[in-house]
Structures are given as structure tokens and as C-alpha cells.
Amino acid sequence: MDFSSSVASQLHAGTILPEGIVIITLMSVLIGDLIFGRSSSRWLPYLAIAGLFNTLVALYFQWSNPNAIAFLGSFDGDNLSIVFRGIVALSAMVTIPMSIRYIQQSGTSLAEFIAIMLTATLGGMFLCGANELTMVFISLEMLSISSYLMTGYMKRDPRSNEAALKYLLIGAASSAIFLYGMSLLYGLSGGETNLNAIAAKITAINGVQSLGLAISLVFIIAGIAFKISAVPFHQWTPDVYEGSPTPVVAFLSVGSKAAGFALAIRLLVTAFGSLTEQWHFIFTALAILSLILGNVVALAQTSIKRMLAYSSIAQAGFVMIGLIAGTDNGYSSMIFYLFIYLFMNLGAFTCIILFSLRTGTDQISEYAGLYQKDPLLTLCLSICLLSLGGIPPMAGFFGKIYLFWAGWQAGLYGLVLLGLITSVISIYYYIRVVKMMVVKEPQEMSESVKNYPVINWKLPGMRPLQVGIVASAIITSLAGILSNPLFTISSNSVASTPILRSAIITQQIPQSNIQVSTVEDLIHK
Predict the structure, then answer these.
(1) Residue 303 gets which letter from DSSP?
(2) pLDDT tens by residue, 384-418
(3) Crossing angle for the helix pair 44-61 and 110-129, nearest 10 degrees?
(4) Contact 512, 354 (CB under 8 A)
(5) 130-178: per-residue pLDDT in tens?
(6) Are 269 and 500 in contact (CB under 8 A)?
């Protein structure tokens, strides 16, 4: 008893209580499906949603946890990880209702799909707090392999199989590159795996070994850039978005991206704190390429899923502005934007799911005249798309304002101006869809809208879709008005996270030294 108590006191296992709830929910879904069979599909999704809601409650009560470091330093449950773990869990919680009708109509098992999504959620949540190289890689692979399985879940659909194969091959290559970068980091640090211990060891590295550290940095950034869909590591994104089941795309566009940015902050700020200028430069190049290519190529897309794929690439470029700024406001604006991006992007995908269930297509031209047949769908999709474009007073406008202001304060004038220009470009292809739905005359309706079925919300799985659409539209609209409280929460998470505080102070020291020397020169003169 004494031995178990001492081990428990050192492990601080209660720090991963939210992940424990997800594990219990996952096991309950599998056992419920095993016992009750197909009939369990009526209540298993709601069991999963309830489990994820309890996960969010557990995360709320762990705010400013005094025992944040758990499992002998392998996991860090600080406020930064709590916020990102909350975003990952919330993205799964919103995705499950939109997938019920879609998966049931495809004839595949809903319980298995939910189990795989919960596994991906678990991997993403562990990745957000991983503080050790082994745990980073295991969490990343748990998220990645689950994503591959969900991408190819529609076994009878050739496009889904093709998307899964492309995602698997490119993802395996990126994982190998990322692992090679971590192995170099492990060797250069003298066999350390804890990120804090690595940071302490490699600060003294110079000369020939610094070249190895730079190579490690490049390989690790390549692996992270694949996860966040940054150019030129974006090749998988359009094909996977177009061929995958739409609920999977919705989860990957938010949950996987949030986990990738959490990994980027923790790994780069901690282990590569001595190379801050170098990785800032690399991410500046990635942001420029992502903003330009993502927004320009999206203009030529005819499929709305491919359009949102390139939009997702561009959105990663916007979020990287906050990462490059490296200030309180920069990190806070990243968290705030990812939170509102969750609702406006998942809301858009929910509308796309509903339209494809009724028409069987995702071509932009087929949305012509939709307002005449489905005003609710038209309104909600328009709100989400306009918010993604940054039209005031939607939430996306305030998110971009915070990001641009943080970048401007940090002296990233060129990057902010490029972000403003590409935002204007993005407004065009978002409004093109809205115009297609609203402005078209009755005689210009597409064939799909002319044959649009009668809306029946009483069909199995349709009520959760309706609730998801309305809730996403309302939150996307109100989040702009309530942006100040949400941004305050983001700021508090950054201000109370030790690794970010030390990194921000270290970054400010050179500037303060320059100012002091200048004052001393003036005094001597």
C-alpha cells in the first residue's frame, strides 16, 4: 500500500483524468457494440458525446493544476495543454453528431467509426501535453494511424481508398522524417528524452554539433508542417479532403491541426529555444507559401471540399503569424483563432454533409439557387463561410484582427500585409459560394437543387445534424461579440504557462540590452 501510494504521488496520474475519461468512453462504446450489436447505434453516439463533455468538465477543473508535471516528466498538464486538449476534445464532440446520419447511410458500422475517432482524440490530447520524445512520437502515431483508418473507412468507395493510400504513404514518410530529426536531437543532447533536459544540454552546443542541431530542426519542422498542412508539405490535403468521408475531413481540419500547433509550440519553444531566430525564419517562409498558394489555388476549385482544403492550408498560414510573433499576444491570438476556427469550419462541413446527403454531390455549381429550397442551410453555410473569410462582425474577423495586430506589434510588417492581401483574395472564393446560393434566379437553379428532396428532420440521425448546424452558426456569430472574454482566457493560459513565460522573457532580453546600451551611449556623449 505504501509502495503504491509513493508511486502514485510521483506519477500524479490524476493529471490525465480527462484522457482517462476518453479511454473509459472508448471501452464503453466497444463493449456496448459487442453486446447489443447494430441496435446500439441509436444511443452509442450520445454516450460518446457525454463522455467528451465530461472530459471538458474535467479539463475545466484542472485549470492551474499544482501537479501539472505527471509521469516523471513525460506529460505536462499546464494551462496551455488544457486549452489545446479542450479544442481537440471539443472538435470530436462536434464531429460525432454530424457523422451519425452520414455513416448510417453508407451502411458501415457507426460504433467502429466512433471508436476510431475517440482513439484519434486520445492521441491528439496526449500530443498536446507530451513533454518527452517517446511520448511525442507514440501520441503522434496514435493520432496519425487513427486518421488513416478513418480516411479509408468507406471501403466500397474508390475515392476513399485512394485518399487513405495517399495519406498513409505521405504520412509514413513524414513520420520517418520527424523521427530522424528526433533521433538527432536525442544524440546531440547526450541521450536525453525529456524536453527540458534536452533544452539544458543543447544550449551549450556550438561548432560542428550546431550543424547537426540545425538539421534536426529542419527535419522536425517538416514533420510538424505535414500535420498542420503547411506548404510545401500540403500535397496530401486536397486529395484526402475530397476523397475522405466528410466528417473525417471536418475532424482533421480542426482537431489534427490544433494538436500539430500544440506540438510545434511545446517542442520548438522548449527544445529549440536557442535556435528561435532560425525556426522563426523557417516558419515565416512556410507562412508566406501557405498564404499565397492556399488562397490563390482555392480560386480555381470546383469542388467545395477541395476549396476548403486549400482554405485550410491558408488558415494554417494565418495561425503561423501568431507563432512567429512569439509574444504574449501572438500565442494568445493563435489559441483564440483555433477555437473560433473550430466552430466556423465544422459548421461549414456540417452544411456540406447535409447538402451531400440530399443531393449526392459536392460541386460548387450545384449549390445554385439553394436559398429557394433550403433557407436554413443557406443561412448557416453563408455565416460560416463569411466568418472564414473574415467579414465583420463574424468571429473570423476578430480572430484575424488579433493575429494581425500581434504580428504588427512584433515587427512582422511584410507578413501582416501579405495576410491582409490574401484575406481579400479569400473573400472572393467564399462569397462566390454565397452568391451561388442566394443570387441565382429560380430558372438558373442547378439540377440538384431542382430535384431537392423534401426536408424531413425526423429521419434517424437528422436532428443531431440540425442542432450542429444551428449551434455552429450561432457560436460563429456570437463569438465575435464575445471575443474579449475568449481572448482573455487565451491570454491567461499563455501567461500562466512557465515554458512560454521563459521563452517570451528570453526573446525580450536582447531588445532590452540594445536599449540600455543606447541610453549609456547617450549619457557618455
Answers:
(1) B
(2) 999 999 888 888 899 999 999 999 999 899 999 99
(3) 10
(4) no
(5) 999 999 999 999 999 999 999 988 878 888 888 889 899 999 999 999 9
(6) yes
Other C-beta atoms closer than 10 Å to the C-beta of 206 total 9
Q: Which long-range contacts (CB under 8 A, 24 or more apart) does 36-42 make?
A: 38/109, 40/111, 41/100, 41/104, 41/109, 41/110, 41/111, 42/460
Give burial (CB, 10 Å; 0-12/13-18/19+) of 509: exposed
> DSSP secondary structure string, 320-369?
HHHHHH-SHHHHHHHHHHHHHHHHHHHHHHHHHHHHHHHHS--BGGGGTT
Rounded to the nearest angstrom, the gap between the alpha carbon of residue 343 and the centroid of all alpha carbons in its chain is 11
Cell reading at 454: 423534401
Report, in angstroms and rounded to the nearest whole number, the Rg of the chain calculated over CA atoms: 23
- What pTM value is reported for the model? 0.91
Residue 257: burial class (beta carbons within 10 Å; 0-12, 13-18, 19+): buried
Cβ atoms of 308 and 248 within 8 Å: the answer is no
Q: What are phi and psi of 361, to 5 degrees?
A: -140, 160
Q: What is residue 276's predicted lDDT score, i.e. its pLDDT? A: 86
Cα distance from N-terminal residue to C-terminal residue, the chain:
72
The residue type of 325 is: A
CA–CA distance, 245 with 106 (Å, rounded to integer): 10
Instruction: Give the distance, in angstroms, between the CA of residue 52 and the centroid of all CA atoms in the same chain.
Output: 17
Q: Which residues contact 442 (CB under 8 A, 6 or more apart)?
A: 369, 372
232 preceded by a cis bond (ω within 30 of 0):
yes
Q: Residue 45, preceding bond cis, omega within 30 degrees?
A: no
Query: Do residues 94 and 468 touch, judged by C-beta distance below 8 A?
Result: yes
What are the pLDDT digits (tens) for 418-436?
999 999 999 999 999 998 8
Mean pLDDT of the chain: 86
Q: In a 10 Å sphere around its CB, with 0-12 CB exposed, 13-18 middle and 19+ buried, how is residue 520 labelled?
A: exposed
How would DSSP label each residue in 360-391? S--BGGGGTTHHHH-HHHHHHHHHHHHHHHT-
Determine the Cα–Cα distance for residues 91 and 341; give it in Å rounded to an integer.
10
